[in-house]
Amino acid sequence: MASSPLKHHKSHSLNGFTAPAKRTKLSFISDSEIQSEFSHHDQTIARINNGSFGSCPQSVISAQQNLQLQFLRQPDNFYFNTLKPSILHSRSLIKSLVNAHSVDEISLVDNATTAAAIVLQNCAWGFNEGRFSKGDVAVMLHYAYGSVKKSVQAYVTRAGGEVIEVHLPFPVASKEEIVSEFRKALARGKENGKKKVRLAVIDHVTSMPSVVIPVKELVKICREEGVDQVFVDAAHGIGCVDVDVRDIGADFYTSNLHKWFFCPPSVAFLYCRKRGEEGKGGDLHHPVVSHEYGNGLAVESAWIGTRDYSAQLVVPAVLEFINRFEGGIEGIKKRNHEKVVEMGEMLVKAWGTNLGSPPEMCGSMIMVGLPACLGISNDPDTLKLRSHLREHFQVEVPIYFRAPVDGEVDSITGYARISHQVYNKVEDYYRFRDAVNQLVSDGFTCASLSN
């Protein structure tokens, strides 16, 4: 990206909601400055897996380290005079970025898994306290994140609820396929009026395989069908896809800030829509009970005992970094999407395969079919191949196993999930292309790898 002067700097925004910028003059960040910000990355690795752990620039790491030292230098002063107002400031910035109605609707937690536990714990209480009937239903996508699926089992199933999974096609050709399967699952959940769907858990961007889900349409369907509450798990949301929580309309929405929003691990926000005095599900609590219990979820989450809260406090520094890019976060999202689609199309052309979804159904990640001759026949094969690519070709990329449908012959059973973030170079994807071409040329199959 070429450097360009900006005479009158305006703060950039997410979905049109402006966050304040401290600088009055700023030049767009250059390619060399981007590489400097991420010089702590292992430069020998083609890191095309931003989706798993995210990435944090050096300027934000420095801000975090300064906050950590402030605490260690005088912890009492930090706790009484810095921590709570700083967390409130971060919450206020996130509130504006995602268009929440009130800062009271925004809580900061460790990650999306913690947010899921908060929502699912509340659902379990509905069964335990007799507000829900045994056998009432929670609906979730089959491709929900593994830990969230286990959390649903731990909280909802154990409390007496039934779980219905929405089985989605993959590869997917259109959002209509997803909408159709979701309607079918809700119909099964209601079972001619004998049961009630108490909670729908909907991903905004599924992890593996990665597909952008039409959340606004699915939330609307939930409202039409009388679903009690809707929880959107958007672990990959903010910084990857458009996030306007009022427009989406869910009761709960969570997103990690360390995946696509440049925060250090680990921090996420949980949005809880206000429902009025009689609001269902209003009695939400952090699963770790500390001194602030009963003072509201946002305050409870801001103090769960002595720990490192610095990741929650660097949101202003992250916005400083983001605003160095042309178009701010909107520009970053647009360029990441365009580049990941371009690289995905380059790879499937080189290998004679296909993408896992249309380009409009991906954000900053896309699923790329691997040659069938690699012999990916189960989930352990994906882990073995991933390790082989890391150790022998210095390529870091997650791989998904797609079980063949009955009657399919020589079908594509392995898909790589490639990411694009600002630090990536085209050479990263060429290295992956050449590595797979070499494996094919050598007659490699996953069966040749030891367990």
Automatic annotation (TrEMBL):
Residue stretches making up the Aminotransferase class V domain: 89-355
Matching InterPro entries: Aminotrans_V_dom (IPR000192)
Keywords: Pyridoxal phosphate
Top-level taxon in the UniProt lineage: Eukaryota
Protein name as catalogued: Aminotransferase class V domain-containing protein
